[in-house]
Amino acid sequence: MSAAGMNGTCPPGGPEDRAARVALTWLAEPGNRAVWTLVHQAGAPATLDRLLSGDIPDARLRGAVAARSAAGDPRRMAEIVLRRADRLGARLVVPADDEWPRRVADLAAMEMDTGGRINSDIRPPLCFWVRGPWPLGETLERSVAIIGARAATSYGIHVTGELAAGISKSGWTVLSGGAFGIDAAAHRGAISGGGRTVAVLACGIDRPYPAGNTALFDRIADTGLLISEWPIGAEPLRHRFLIRNRVIAAATAGTVVVEAAARSGAAQTMSRVLALDRPAMVVPGPVTSAMSVGCHEILRNNPYARVVTSAGEVLEEIGRIGEYYAETPRGPERRHDHLDEETALVLEALPRNGSVTPEQVAAEARLNLRTVLRRLSLLEIAGLVARTGDGVALAHVSGRNRHDAG
Amino acid sequence: MSAAGMNGTCPPGGPEDRAARVALTWLAEPGNRAVWTLVHQAGAPATLDRLLSGDIPDARLRGAVAARSAAGDPRRMAEIVLRRADRLGARLVVPADDEWPRRVADLAAMEMDTGGRINSDIRPPLCFWVRGPWPLGETLERSVAIIGARAATSYGIHVTGELAAGISKSGWTVLSGGAFGIDAAAHRGAISGGGRTVAVLACGIDRPYPAGNTALFDRIADTGLLISEWPIGAEPLRHRFLIRNRVIAAATAGTVVVEAAARSGAAQTMSRVLALDRPAMVVPGPVTSAMSVGCHEILRNNPYARVVTSAGEVLEEIGRIGEYYAETPRGPERRHDHLDEETALVLEALPRNGSVTPEQVAAEARLNLRTVLRRLSLLEIAGLVARTGDGVALAHVSGRNRHDAG
Known about the structure:
The structure is a homodimer of 406-residue chains.
Chain A: H1 15-27, H2 33-42, H3 44-52, H4 59-71, H5 74-88, E1 91-93, H6 117-120, E2 128-131, H7 136-141, E3 143-147, H8 154-169, E4 173-176, H9 182-192, E5 197-201, H10 214-223, E6 225-228, H11 238-251, E7 255-257, H12 265-275, E8 280-282, H13 290-301, E9 306-307, H14 311-320, H15 332-335, H16 341-348, H17 358-365, H18 369-381, E10 385-388, E11 391-394
Parallel strand pairs in A: 3-4, 3-7, 4-5, 5-6, 7-8, 8-9
Antiparallel strand pairs in A: 1-2, 2-6, 10-11
Helix pairs in contact in A: 1-3, 1-5, 2-3, 8-9, 8-14, 11-12, 14-18, 16-17, 16-18, 17-18
């Protein structure tokens, strides 16, 4: 199951693999191309041995490893970190675990056309530290990132809250960073919508940054997930936010930027979202607002970035890519909620038993075929409709009558 | 020069041609496909003869002509209208005239995919009534349409004023309708920018509608142009605004929508702009504003519609299509104003004499080549730079030193 190579004495997911991944993340920043490539080829324990022996072709990595090793024995640091995490109620998730999120693997093949250091260190995470009650992979499977400026305006905060609540009510997870402004508004909106929210930190999850959001972080750990690639104790250094951003882009089904200043980090995240072929969505704003300049820049510079103005449009954009994420259907009491009128008409037009063609649905619902296809896509994602050999049919996942959905 | 067929006794542009075009516009609404096709094949006088003889295959047109003829003799009406126009200081412009605007001919080939009546009557104008001191064709050659809602917000009014003033200062004509809201703000902004503005009416230019804009219309007729396809005395009927919109789309180098409600007339105009392969530009706004819903709809429904946030971006979009409209260069005192920093750097990087390659300009200006190419394109449109066999050179249109441009 793991992307890492097999090793007879140190099976992926075993104690040695886990400790080696923690030590490697302590030695070099997550996303490091050379480290990830070695782990992919030889496994984490062998990579750790090799790095500690000084056999490192990459000069920059060799320097970093030497500096970190001088500060402490990486294997000993890993032990300490694992013990402290256990006391904090945090768990380590590695690629061999069932709850490893599958989408981050796409970072293995992502290429960025800029040659800078941050853009070269974009490989998949070696591990995640996780606090919260939900399985990580299942929670991220149906997730949307909402990102934006710390110095958000009341407009941005309001729109973010509405978007996040709508996404959350539709049974999708909201994911964001931990910053003030748009990030915090996204988590609060998702919590108010009754769904899960995930904060991806750029520091140890023992000390989520900024401290001003501590009460919010505690609430996220109770109702959603706090996650980080960095070991317990890691500081929120500036460059780590840029490294972290690749996980926001890769772990979700799509990313929405609500407000961003000119040449902001949001543009960098969006370029990764686009490089990963995920929906890159932008909320426009007043052209007179400095906090919308970055949003409009992204729209002007990326023909594939799309304007979105509501949670419904966000879900439509995600449905557009035609992926099927309903591996973890929610209970029917969630999935039937908040259908818009057209979606309800499409659902009503499906026979209780047997399958029909989308054209038949369109005729019955008196909607045009394009609308019907989009709505069917959303209903399929929601687990309410299934494709059959010759058309579509109601998915009978529970004993409930379809009229519950009206 | 005329699109109309030649006729030995009635040369295009002669008195019979002119009177027949006025009579035809009085008999049938402008844009009528059947009338335009007959005029194109046989000329206006022969078409008028044929329509008045009742030899009309199109049943709808036959009905309209019969109803109008019963209200008065079309030839007599044309005489009256031409005499009244002369007293009002308005002139008739027909395709054979030097000042006929060349771009509206593109309506001859435009096809819309919707089958409605308004969308079928999209053929070129037969004539324009014009009030104002400038040649019509030259004025429209370098023009941008700014359109939007009557019930504009203060945000829309402000942004429109800034856009129109910037476009006007760059030596481009602003064109709009005559309505309250965005239209009026566009004209006011253009006048404040010191340039020409053109109001395209959907009624006779003796009675520009709405009357509340009378002072503005008088100012437009003094400093720019008031134009209409409808004869003196024509009422501003509702459907005429939709017919008029095709001229807004076709007469300009590109169209900007600033504010629009959901499913507004602006969306119809923009679909024509796109059908004509002209830049369709949209100013975004708060997603919480009902007056920006139409703008965001246009962006979501048309992948080729582009976000613009400033006059500079509007001119860049128009420059992007690579057309060269600088047939009527303004005086250098106009053209050097308001260069942005990058454009000024590019201009500074050009030698006083001789030509250089864009790559040399990029090296000298320390800008990337893509930026340099875009700025050179704008400077070329502005008449400040000329292409040479092996590169680009300063255009020496006046004796002034290039440092005036800094």
